[in-house]
Write a structure and sequence with these properties.
The complex is a heterodimer. Chain A is an all-alpha fold. Chain A has 2 domains: 84 residues, no CATH class; 234 residues, Orthogonal Bundle (MetI-like fold). Chain A is built from 13 helices and no strands. By secondary structure, chain B is α+β, with helices and mostly antiparallel strands. Chain B contains 20 helices and 27 strands. Chain B starts with a helix and ends with a strand. Classes of the chains: A mainly alpha, B alpha+beta. Chains A and B meet through helix 2, helix 3, helix 5, helix 7 and helix 8 of A and helix 1, helix 4, helix 7 and helix 16 of B.
Chain lengths: 334, 625
Amino acid sequence: MVFKKYFIPRFIQYITVLLIGITMVFIIPRLLPSDPVEHQLNRMTAQGQYLDPAAVEEMRETLQELYGLKGGLFQQYLIYWKRLCTGNLGPSFTQFPTPVIELIKTSLPWTVGLLLVSLMLSWLIGTILGGIKVSFPNSLLTRFMEVFAMGMRPIPYYIMALVLLIVLAFVFPVFPMAGGYSMGAEIGFNFKFLLDLLRHAFLPILSMVMLEIGGWFLQMRNVASNIVEEDYVVYAEASGLPRRKVILHYIMRNALIPQITGLALNLGFIFGGALITEIVFSYPGIGNLLYSAILAGDYNLIMGINIFSIVGVSTAMLVIDLIYPLLDPRVRYQ
Amino acid sequence: MKSKSTALFLILTVLCLILSCSIWAINPPRNEMLIADILTGKVGNPGNFNYWATWVGNDKGLQQLILDPLWMADYVTGEIINVLAKTNPIYTDGFTKLTVNLREGIFWSDGVEFTADDVVYTVKLCMDTPGFGYHTQFNQNIKRVYKTDDYTVVFELKKANSRFHYQLLDRWGTCRILPKHIFEKVKDPLSFQFNPPIGTGPYKLVEYDLGGYWFLYERREDWQRTATGMLYGKPAPKYVKFIYYGDAAKKAMAQINHQLDMADLTPESLQVVLAKNKHARGYYKDFPLAELLHPCVTGAAFNTLVKPFDNREVRWALNLALDAKSLALTAYNGAVAFSPAYIPALLPYYETYYERLQPWLEEYTIEVDGERYKPYNPNLPFEMAEAARERGYAVPETEQEIRKMFGYGWWKHSPDLAEKLLKKNGFTRNSNGKWLLPDGTPWKIELVCLTSATNPSFKWAFAIANQWQEFGIDCEARPTEQVESLTETGDYQVVGGQPAAEPFGAGIDLYRAFHEFKSSYFKPIGEKRVGHQSRWVHQDLDRIIEKMENTGYNDPEVIDLGIEAAKILIHGQPGVSLASFPGFMGLDTYYWRNYPGGENPYAVPWYHWPNFKFILPFLEPTGRK
């Protein structure tokens, strides 16, 4: 009963956010100056099609018909919801008639794999080292980590990624310069392919981990350094509890709460992609897909990708709300 | 603690070594594989090869290696190549009937013979399928299409059209022929992926990257049964790989490491490649490095419906305020072939058009305040050659070679004449020397352009804006991703890009470029118009275009009509018709040599053009492993 009371308002809030968000992604792309029909007509002429204006006009009509862009905005909006309720995101305009869901299915696994691994790695390493730093402030490793974190934070990501690429893929060509896997690889769940995937993802992941690790480290250090001075930690130490227990149960556990909130939010953002990483390392993913969709005014594709993002972030926030009482005994389902 | 750190270090080192090892990649031998760049970038839907239904990244190898047209334009030789067709198009009955004779002995890559049925089916399928690329054009023109035997197709047209076959003539796109035996089994041709693609071209698809970054093709064992094999012989590379590495900097890195044989680069990145890779070269081995003669004229277009660009003399003044030599040196280090006549500087067009226009250009006169000026500078190519020599480059000595490289001339840098023209039209300068519009307000020009730094739209826009600023106009170049939509609705002043549409570059006919100026196509500002940015029309030009329509595409009279059209355009000056599109291509000769180049221009050199398949038989392996 208590959980129900806690859950229902949050769930209503969640649904409201989804409704507003999804409506916004319907409206906003239509405010862009780019028009998918005109983009396609331009592409046809650019690819050598010989069209006189009468043919252009007729083609324009045909494309509007095919893309479902005829009729008023409200009518389109209703069709959009009808389609969405059946799990259909419609066809991509730029790659018509390929369904949007197919394009997302092709790109999303790369992005999720890349961002999930780099996020988890940077979070784990940053959090653990941040905790250790406070517990062992004079350790050589943690001091180095602090300098590293402070030094890495101001470096623009693009520059760092480019340096990694130049050093490890060009000057010392140990890692590939582009792509998600090697030509000739046997695609499937086998050791060789997984290693090949890892080899291609190594530099993109390394670049993101190097940059993000500092943030997690500093956040953990700052939170934990305050906790160290809390009465209950001083009391625990004074009562003779083992140092390890004090660190793990009294300092780290309490300092983890904001870290977990941050992690959950970042997990939600995964669906937005990592455009710069994809561009620098020519790595497949959803960021590039979204970028080209925006340029071409591919409404359906923009909406499809953003729906994933909206659902991802909103769900992450709902989950945080729901599990918070489990993590922090001070918060209750009431 | 120390031992733990050492162990961690060792684990990481071993991991790095494992990851950096590429023993699992089964790559074809590098010396049997040609690697070219995917010029239009990463392919969004790599598994879709249905060229007729959608944009599928045509230059991922599909148009270069797999599909064939009936005819292909070669802008280097100026010839129309009969590919699947055996002869040139044959028009009868007052351009209402077109007969196509097909080449015999061609086979699809799955072993089925190519016949007239394929051509008829392709055309009928396009007509019956809304959303197919040529659906509209074919329905507009074709009354009936049928075969008279296995190698003859007849098109009966709804009305006389002396250029209907342009829908089937390839110039980076056309209605190429699809395999009937594959498509006739398909329920929905629009959503059909056509994977693996079956073509009449000399290669077949082996593998592609699910992420859309690379595609691998293998030469067909029966390459003799392809048009390429019949026309030019055995393609040399057993494998061809198309790959997208990323921007010009990444392509340069790949080319320096011999991982990319053919790439489109910027002038700057090409210089880096040449400095680091002794086997690399440009289109020319030395200056100008770039391919200068390309069937696309670049510069800028005025929006002639917007004041003050609706005034012919203002447009002329803006042209004359430009210093062509300085523009060329700034934007392209002097690697530019000038094209003042809205016709691209191109070998086939030099003799046909520019040589014949030259005397008229030299005598062309502008009259201001009773004084007459001749604004054309026929000596510009020689001035360019001199400037290049001063920069330490080796430049040809003969007049013919210099004209071939830099074109026939452009307008003199005449700021004084430009000033007179502007003042005649009510423009004034303020106390700071800045130009004011006739109503006394400051003259501001926004020059929109593409965002890609490799594109002449971007390069020219900044160079031109700089010179107009020096002339006293408050001008700003603004790169934007929205050039397309702005120009389509006429919401711009000046745009960096193409002042006229692209001709085929082969044959003698310029209709493809000039018909866009027809006044029957005119749209006012606010209404969308694709392909004609300046919106400039002229009744004299209408008459010429109409005459062209009633003249055969290969009738020598079209040359005279093309010249007349060019004169009208020059007089009206709807844009800045500056130069052909300079292309900076990096070619690595480490594994392959005998690419088409400035010294040996035997074919279209670009690997993203459909003509690419015709280069492959001429390439020679160097023998390096």
